[in-house]
C-alpha cells in the first residue's frame, strides 16, 4: 500500500534525512587510505547517536539475507555494488567507495547513498560517479505531479544506456516513510508514462546503481549480502530521499 504523507510528516522526514546527510558527510571526511570500513561504521554510529536517531539498517533482515545486517552503513568497495558489510578491510589509495546510510528519528526514516574516490581518483571513476549523480538528478527532476514511476525509471535507465553502463536487474529505489522500504518500487529502468502516478505527499528513495563494465549481471558474495559486478568492473550507487510536492521535488536527505 502506498502511503501519502502530510506536510508535517514530510517535515519530520526532513529531520531524519538531515541526520543521514550528516552521517554521510562525516564518513566521507573520515575515509582515507589506511582507514578500515569498520572504523567508518563507527563514525556513522556516532553521528546517529548524537542526533538521537537509530539505524534502520542495523538488524535488518530481508528474505534473501542469511543474517541480520550487522552495521549502520553499507560500505561497498570497487566492484561491490551495494550492501557491503563494513569489515577490517583498510582503504587503499584509488579505491572507489559507495556508502549507504539510513536514520530513523521520531518514527520517520531517511535513506541516502554516495560514491566517492579515496585518495587519488581514477579519471574513469570520476566519470562513473558524475554520470551516476547526473542520472539521479534526472530521476529527481522527473518526480513531479502528473508523472508516473516509469518516468523516473526511464530517466535513470536512459542515462545509464547513453553512458554505456550496466544496471542491476530487480534493484532500485522505493517508497519510504515510517519504514525504510515501502511501496512503490522504483526500477532503475522502465517505460515513461507507466506505473504508479506521482502525487503530492509521496516520499521516494531514488537510487541509481551504474556498473562501469556495461553488463547488468551481478552476484552475491559469501556473506549473503554484498552484491558484486559479474565482470569485476567498478560500480557507483548514489541515492536521495525526496518528496513529491506541488512545487516540485523536495530533497530530504541534504544538510
Describe the structure.
Monomer. It catalyses: Release of N-terminal amino acids, preferentially methionine, from peptides and arylamides. Residues 12-246 form the Peptidase M24 domain. The protein has helices at 7-30, 37-50, 123-141, 149-163; strands at 73-77, 80-82, 96-105, 108-117, 172-175, 182-187, 203-206, 209-211, 218-220, 227-229, 235-237, 240-243, 250-251. The strands form 4 sheets. It has a 5-stranded antiparallel beta sheet. Strands 1-3-4 form a 3-stranded antiparallel beta sheet. Strands 2-10-9 form a 3-stranded antiparallel beta sheet, with no helix packed on it. A hairpin with a 6-residue loop joins strand 12 and strand 13 (250-251). The chain is α+β, with helices and mostly antiparallel strands and 255 residues long. Helices cover 28% and strands 24% of the residues. The protein is globular. The model has no long low-confidence stretch (mean pLDDT 98). Helix 1 (7-30) packs antiparallel against helix 2 (37-50) and helix 3 (123-141) runs antiparallel to helix 4. The chain has 4 helices and 13 strands.
